[in-house]
Design goal:
single chain, about 500 residues, alpha+beta, Arc Repressor Mutant, subunit A, BirA Bifunctional Protein, domain 2, seven-stranded mixed sheet, three-stranded antiparallel sheet, 15 strands, about 35% helix, binds phenylalanine
């Protein structure tokens, strides 16, 4: 029977009765499963007071599987009694019966059987009476017939203890007519369409009310990886602070933008094969803004802008080497150079969140690729105080308020500061990022006006994600060992709590 027909049948039945009807009785009279009737009752309940339904619970006794078995074969003690031949039987034989152990002690205490302990060859069991009355079976039969009321509480409790009976609670609905009772169910509309408004038909229709308690359906595919969830949160924070996202869609970069433009000397250890993945194909880049490249060469080799430079033989061959970018500061360098080409300088706030690559020794917290989050602010006369202020604002939005700074070194920033935050969970200060004020040796060759300062900071995306999601080994977060169930089960990300 379709649900709709079932609803009609229930309404018809309700029409006939005075007062109300019980869902279990309705199910019995329609020869249907009770759950089907409950489903129909619930659907009818969503209509505007067509019916009223009140849940009731009824307790009753039912035979367990073992109880049913006994109804067929007799109680354990009766089975033991029946198994004893006129000349008796060895106790050891009797005990081999499936019902032997329980049946023997019950039959003994009923005085149905007796034992001769002095018999040759071990204890011997005889019947102590000709006939027995298997009251356990009789009681079970009464319960089976729905006459459990004829048993007293103690009898039922005893049978429950023997695991032959169990008490079950049945939840049914007591259904009565509602104020707008009708045997004709008007199908309710779930959507108000533009057409209904245009032709006025909405006025005659009934609309289904919203069920705000309905559980959402969990999609079984298309879950965002925790890293992407955390990235979304960081992006949101930057956007709230008025930052614009930089284009980061080039994993391959030249050494020039990754290192040289950042005033990182060509002999710097980070440029080593051990720290950087160089490309073999294409091994070199050829397109550079040549006048800018000349200024970079000059500031490295001879100095300028009030700096003495590094005083070494700067080689374009080194700058041409292609690599997988080791930090997103390469992107910031490109963007700042572009900004410097504007006719008139305008202050900017930029951010990026994307992947970088380092030839690291892999361990529980390091992989050869990870994501960097970077913020950059360029304006006249920015100070270290501005940097600390913007960091305070940024980290507060993450729910991190206790910050400390430690002097550090980056070839491209002066001063440079590592950022530490107090981790309430770990009860210690943990490093959360690196920051600084970009050096004039980096900014002035780009063509940025004198007096423009650029403050910047960077952090990894993996670290806060691991802390947030309680993941201790980075290989469980990224790479071929990731359990997709982890992605599926990871909750939404809220960084500020
Ligand atoms: N590029 C630095 C790193 O890779 C982070 C950083 C960005 C430091 C901007 C200072 C300023 O760790």
């Amino acid at each position: 029977m379709a649900e709709r027909e079932l609803q009609d049948a229930l309404l018809l039945r309700l029409q006939e009765v005075d007062g109300g009807a019980d869902s279990a009785e309705m199910a019995a009279s329609l020869a249907l499963d009770h759950q089907l009737v409950v489903g129909a009752v619930k659907s009818l309940q969503t209509l505007d007071d067509v019916i009223k339904a009140e849940q009731r619970s009824h307790k009753h006794w039912e035979l367990t599987e073992e109880g049913k078995d006994i109804l067929e074969k007799g109680s354990h003690e009766a089975q033991v009694f029946d198994a004893i031949p006129p000349n008796g039987i060895a106790q050891s034989e009797l005990m081999k019966l499936p019902s032997g152990k329980v049946g023997f002690s019950k039959a003994m205490s009923n005085k149905w059987i007796r034992i001769d302990k002095s018999a040759e060859g071990g204890p011997w069991i005889y019947k102590a009476m000709d006939d027995i009355d298997d009251s356990v079976k009789t009681k079970l039969l009464l319960v089976q017939q729905g006459k459990d009321k004829t048993l007293d509480d103690k009898e039922k409790k005893d049978l429950k203890k023997r695991k032959l009976l169990s008490e079950v609670t049945l939840k049914t609905y007591w259904i009565t007519k509602g104020s707008s009772f009708s045997t004709k169910v008007v199908k309710q509309d779930t959507d108000l369409t533009p057409e209904m408004i245009a032709n006025g038909s909405w006025q005659g229709r009934k609309f289904k009310s919203y069920n705000f308690d309905a559980q959402g359906i969990i999609p079984d595919c298309g879950h965002l990886h925790p890293l992407m969830k955390v990235r979304t949160e960081f992006r949101q924070i930057f956007l709230e602070m008025g930052f614009t996202e930089m284009p980061t869609n080039n994993f391959i970069e030249s050494s020039f933008w990754n290192f040289d433009s950042l005033f990182q000397p060509q002999q710097h250890p980070a440029r080593d094969q051990h720290d950087t993945f160089f490309l073999s194909e294409p091994a070199t880049a050829t397109e550079f803004p040549m006048d800018y490249l000349e200024r970079v060469k000059k500031v490295h080799s001879e100095g300028g802008y009030g700096s003495q430079g590094y005083n070494y033989d700067w080689k374009i061959e080194e700058a041409q080497k292609n690599l997988l970018r080791t930090h997103t500061t390469a992107v910031s360098a490109r963007m700042l150079y572009k900004l410097a080409q504007q006719e008139v300088f305008t202050p900017v706030k930029y951010f990026s969140i994307d992947r970088v690559f380092r030839n690291e020794t892999l361990d529980a917290t390091h992989l050869a690729e990870f994501h960097q989050i970077e913020g950059v602010v360029a304006d006249y006369d920015l100070t270290l105080g501005d940097l600390m202020g913007v960091l305070q604002q940024f980290f507060t939005k993450l729910g991190i308020t206790k910050l400390r700074y430690k002097p550090a070194f980056n070839p491209y920033t002066e001063p440079s500061m590592e950022i530490f935050s107090y981790h309430e969970g770990l009860k210690k200060w943990v490093e959360v990022g690196n920051s600084g004020v970009f050096r004039p040796e980096m900014l002035l060759p780009m063509g940025l006006p004198e007096g423009v300062c650029v403050i910047a900071w960077g952090l990894s995306l993996e670290r806060p994600t691991m802390i947030k999601y309680g993941i201790n080994n980075i290989r469980e977060l990224v790479g071929h060992k990731v359990n997709l169930q982890m992605v599926y089960d990871s909750p939404v990300c809220r960084l500020d709590c």
